Amino acid sequence: MFEKSHRMRRIFGADGRTLIVAMDHASFMGPVPGLIDPAATVRGVVAGGADAVMTTYGTAKRIVGDLAGRGLILSVDLHSPDPAGVVERAVELGADSIKTLATWGGEDRDALRAVGRYAILCDRWGIPFQAEMIPVSFAATDKHTPENIAMAARIGAEQGADYVKVMYTGDPETFRPVVEGAGVPVVILGGARVEGVPVERQVADALRVGGAGIAFGRNIWSAPDPESATRALAATIHGPAARAERERQPARA
Fold first, then answer.
1. Could you give the CA distance from residue 96 to residue 99 in angstroms, rounded to a whole number?
2. How far is residue 149's CA from residue 133's CA, in Å, rounded to a whole number?
3. How would residue 249 be classed by pLDDT, with cut points 50, 70 and 90?
4. In sequence order, what are the beta bridge partners of 214?
5. Considering Cα of 193, then 197, then 203, then 209, what sign does the dihedral take?
6. What rounded mean pLDDT belongs to the chain?
7. Among 139, 132, 136, 164, which residue's Cα sits nearest to residue 148?
8. In angstroms, how far is the first alpha carbon of the chain from the final one?
9. Is 237 in contact with 203 (CB distance < 8 Å)?
10. In the chain, pLDDT over 70 holds for what percent of residues?
């Protein structure tokens, strides 16, 4: 069985960080600019320094030849009627990881059981499992507190996720407990940002307190030049300034 560690190295760099470009939006947004020709966008983000691309099965079949050795993360339905078949199909496609979206504390009472089921199946096949954990729902913005984000991240890890994707709390000091409490690598998702603060600064702040990277979609593929957008974020995550910042950090016990 192919070891998880090999696949994880196709997603996370030698510095333990990752820049994931999320391109699974066409499944609910349709053929919007940036996703009409996903292969062209993938070639651009790969040239810009993306570590991995996350997308659905349909798009994955179209872009797998354009990844140039970058990681492929397959975004799958949490409540698929055949989760075992989904994992097997991902392995056959050559995916390096599987991702599901789940809510904690919301109306979906079966969400955590389904997350745990995927974690077991991914363990069986030696494929890393990413859980995107959202408190209650995307619409319940009043529930997206740092405490709830930290709780959701830890619950995803406890269900067996190898790494989790969560909302950024808005500042490094409230994000630090999310990272420290998760117990697995934590990447932040795109979407709403802190008004007036450049996105690269927010990413750098998340990394400074232990974040493992990003999984951004529209911030990248809807940009006028996805390659340039990727390159700017890659510099923040993996570049010389990022390395210097890591070297300044005290060693953790």
1. 10
2. 8
3. low
4. 19, 188
5. negative
6. 93
7. 136
8. 33
9. yes
10. 93
Instruction: Tell me the pLDDT tens digit for each residue of 91-107.
Output: 999 999 999 999 999 99
pLDDT in tens, 122-158: 999 999 999 999 999 999 999 999 999 999 999 999 9
Domains assigned to the chain? 4-247 (3.20.20.70)
Give the span between the Cα atoms of 155 and 152, in whole angstroms: 5
Which whole-number Å values give the CA distances from 70 to 15, 49, 172, 250, in the listed order? Answer: 16, 9, 29, 31
pLDDT range class, residue 195, cuts 50, 70, 90? confident
Fill in the amino acid letter for 155.
I
Instruction: Name 9's Cβ contacts closer than 8 Å, sequence gap at least 6.
Output: none
CA distance 139 to 26: 20
How far apart are alpha carbons 158 and 1 in whole angstroms?
24
The three-state DSSP-derived secondary structure of the chain is CCCHHHHHCCCCCCCCCEEEEECCCHHHHCCCCCCCCHHHHHHHHHHHCCCEEEECHHHHHHHHHHCCCCEEEEECCCCCCCHHHHHHHHHHHCCCEEEEEEEECCCCCCHHHHHHHHHHHHHHHCCCEEEEEEECCCCCHHHCCHHHHHHHHHHHHHCCCCEEEECCCCCHHHHHHHHHHHCCCEEEECCCCCCCCCHHHHHHHHHHCCCCEEEECHHHHCCCCHHHHHHHHHHHHHCHHHHHHHHHCCCCC
> Model's pTM, two decimal places?
0.93
Q: Which range, of 25-29, 118-122, 164-168, averages the lowest pLDDT?
A: 25-29
